[in-house]
Amino acid sequence: xxxxxxxxxxxxxxxxxxxxxxxxxxxxxxxxxxxxxxxxxxxxxxxxxxxxxxxxxxxxxxxxxxxxxxxxxxxxxxxxxxxxxxxxxxxxxxxxxxxxxxxxxxxxxxxxxxxxxxxxxxxxxxxxxxxxxxxxxxxxxxxxxxxxxxxxxxxxxxxxxxxxxxxxxxxxxxxxxxxxxxxxxxxxxxxxxxxxxxxxxxxxxxxxxxxxxxxxxxxxxxxxxxxxxxxxxxxxxxxxxxxxxxxxxxxxxxxxxxxxxxxxxxxxxxxxxxxxxxxxxxxxxxxxxxxxxxxxxxxxxxxxxxxxxxxxxxxxxxxxxxxxxxxxxxxxxxxxxxxxxxxxxxxxxxxxxxxxxxxxxxxxxxxxxxxxxxxxxxxxxxxxxxxxxxxxxxxxxxxxxxxxxxxxxxxxxxxxxxxxxxxxxxxxxxxxxx
Length: 434
Prior knowledge:
The chain is of the alpha+beta class. The chain has helices spanning 2-5, 56-63, 74-82, 108-121, 126-145, 147-160, 173-178, 181-191, 207-218, 266-278, 284-292, 323-339, 344-362, 369-378, 385-393, 397-407, 424-430; strands at 15-18, 24-29, 35-42, 87-92, 97-104, 197-203, 240-245, 250-258, 296-305, 310-319, 413-419. Helix 4 (108-121) runs parallel beside helix 9 and helix 10 (266-278) packs across helix 16 (397-407).
């Protein structure tokens, strides 16, 4: 497997420059493709909201597809993209809102024009604003009706409490009902500006022509300012637990631990722990919960990192009558990582799994894009796929033991549960056993 490591790219071809108004632009040529991918990022999201306007970033994202000065309806706005068979959408997160168009390389001007138009010229028609309120309220209810998704919001709330990191990206029903069109316009004019955004174009394109198009469509954007990231207050000190009793046929849970922000070197050790616990059918969690206990269809671990925080979680939907037993056994498995060194064989298998996963990802279109985007997002040096995998391959059993003891602690354990069982106290006792 170490031979395959040498085949992982150790260089990313890209060019980064800045327009006169302060908009950073990143060009990533991939000439072997037949398409181009244009993605605009704005530094706004739940993290930048207040208690009173929570949900406004997501609401705004919806409304940007409702019409601009020259194309005043959704039909007018999106027709040029549908006529070229483009794939386009938007996404709101905690730290960023992004918009993208993926189209054939010969239609790059159509893609850039669309992003520029919604970014600078959206008009937010009053009728569409009122109609979209109903759509978002239904979206909120949809996620609340699905315990597999709602458990994530509940978990964030128990970890971070009443601050942006603990709020729902879609907002609350009360906030959405009370938002006014004027609120949207003010928020839009504040954050949607050149210095607070960046544009990434990847795929098959001619660089000189693309630069001209970017200048043509984006050079007149308002400069504005780069808004500082509102940091999260991290609180540790005691186990945190939240329980919701509902009429469900499964117990849905997330067991999680706070870790490290993006760019921290220990995250590669955590990736390896994730692979040990959840890397394929032979991983510890799959063998324990699926094969031994027969207690779940979905069970997995995952690691997430943001600008100022990180999480390692185990998530699953498990048998109601085995719920406490299964979570107890999962905790026992996690605890074993603190007490016993991982064997060299199991560690190597985990590394190989990550290498294989990385190799498959690099075989996909725009495979190197997220390395550049993450660097731009968090203003960190770009780390190549080779550098990442080399660091992972240097992980030792002692590294696993050290990080496991650092994060899997009683003052750092968080548990959220949705279940139909009436044994809240039994679940609450589990978080004391780590």
